[in-house]
Amino acid sequence: MGDMRTSVRWILGSQYFLYFGVMGVFLPFFNLYCHHLGFSGFQIGVLSAIRTVIGVIFPLLWAMMADRLKIRKSLYVVCHLISASLFGLFLFSADFTAMVMIMTVYSIFYSPLISFLETLTMKLLGEDRNSYGKIRVWGSVSFILCVLVIGKMIDQSSVSIIILLIFSASLLQALLSPMVPDSFPQKPSVARPGKGFFSARMILFLTCAFLMLLSHGTYYGFFSIHLEAQGFDTVFTGISWALASCSEIIVMLNSRTIFKRFSFDRLILFSLLVAAMRWLLLYFAVSPVLILASQMLHSITYGVFHISSILYIDRLSHEESKTVGQSVNNAVTYGFGMMAGFLVNGYLYEKLGASLFLFSSGCAFAGALLFYFGRDKERIE
User: Fold this and answer.
1) Whole-number CA gyration radius for the chain
2) Which of 129-133, 228-232, 239-243, 263-267 has the highest mean pLDDT?
3) Between the N and C ends of the chain, which has fewer C-beta atoms within 10 Å?
């Protein structure tokens, strides 16, 4: 059983590596590819919006089907194969209308993959869920490598390689996905007071998680622009982003130790408070040392908070609704939270500029206060 579990960890690690490798190509470079096709800013925005909106709605529908019929792995494999095949159609079309149609259908099948993967990983780790970070870290490593390497590959060839790279990695992950086991035999889970999908504790956490991701809107949307306005060059900007990603790896590698020593409640509260401090620091910071120091806090505001969220939702969800739980978490945070953050910041940036970091700090601090005073006394560990 020990050797089997070790091999499964490598299989899961490869799935995270390929999934976030695709993200490391898609997020920085797909819009660049569309720009080189001659698409307008509005057309590029439409393609991005399609992916975002579908990423909020359809994972919930897929998750309900998976949990109701108990076919999580089967749907994971099927969605992988279909989404990878559909993405290949981008190789044969540069027409905007055709790409809108491809993006729509592709996103329907692509959108639930991360929720399925998180749920299967939690199921397979069983009692050793606290080591989740050591598997998830492969995603961060892959993302960093792709961001650093793909740009040079594009310079040496052309932007058309972007579609081929995404398609190849997606197809490889799809072909490897059947290797992920459904589950190992587990001990019967012990029911916890207040445990249930619509419990007050769940609603409280999702509200605070929404505020946490809302607070990240200024950072993800305007951090690079903020640095440029302060006179920093693109090299410093790249170093800042890379440092943040590297810092999260440290947390993920040490996740088992961290989550053995501290409860989820304390870590979530701590992450919210650190986020409030991080955005406040970015508002006042003008020296490169302070800015880079604030980037190291990404290890807490993303690394600790993300892992805590995945484990927390898993503990709060019934066995028959675990995929739905992860899907709702993703929808509320990286869906609605990020969307709201981008919309609010996009609307206010011209008027407020760097003052938006004060708004971000306030959102995170409000989440911390709400979580502190709203949580019940029983800790979830």
Assistant:
1) 20
2) 263-267
3) N
Q: Where are the domains of the chain?
A: 2-179, 200-374
* Range with lowest mean pLDDT among 94-108, 177-191, 254-268: 177-191
Return the SS3 of 105.
helix
Pick the CATH number of 200-374 from 3.40.190.10, 1.10.600.10, 1.20.1250.20, 3.40.50.300: 1.20.1250.20
pLDDT tens digits, one per residue of 109-157: 998 998 889 888 888 887 777 788 889 899 888 888 887 787 778 777 7
3-state secondary structure string, 242-309?
A: HHHHHHHHHHHHCHHHHHHHCCHHHHHHHHHHHHHHHHHHHHHCCCHHHHHHHHHCHHHHHHHHHHHH
Of 298, 329, 295, the C-alpha closest to 312 is 329
pTM for the full predicted model: 0.76
Q: Which pair of tokens denotes residue 151?
A: 């740009």
- Give the architecture (CATH level 2) of 2-179: Up-down Bundle (1.20)
Query: In this structure, which long-range contacts are made by residues 30-37, counting pairs with CB atoms below 8 Å and at least 24 apart in sequence?
Result: 30/162, 30/166, 32/154, 32/159, 32/162, 33/159, 33/160, 33/162, 33/163, 34/99, 36/159, 37/94
Q: What's the pLDDT score for residue 190?
A: 43
- Among 127, 368, 372, 381, residue whose Cα is nearest residue 259: 381
* pLDDT per residue as tens digits for the range 197-220: 568 888 999 999 999 999 988 888
pLDDT: which is higher, 134 or 296: 296
Q: Could you tell me if residue 302 is left (phi over 0), alpha (psi between -120 and 50 degrees) or otherwise beta?
A: alpha
Tokens of 247: 């810092």
| Count of beta carbons in the 10 Å neighbourhood of residue 88 | 18
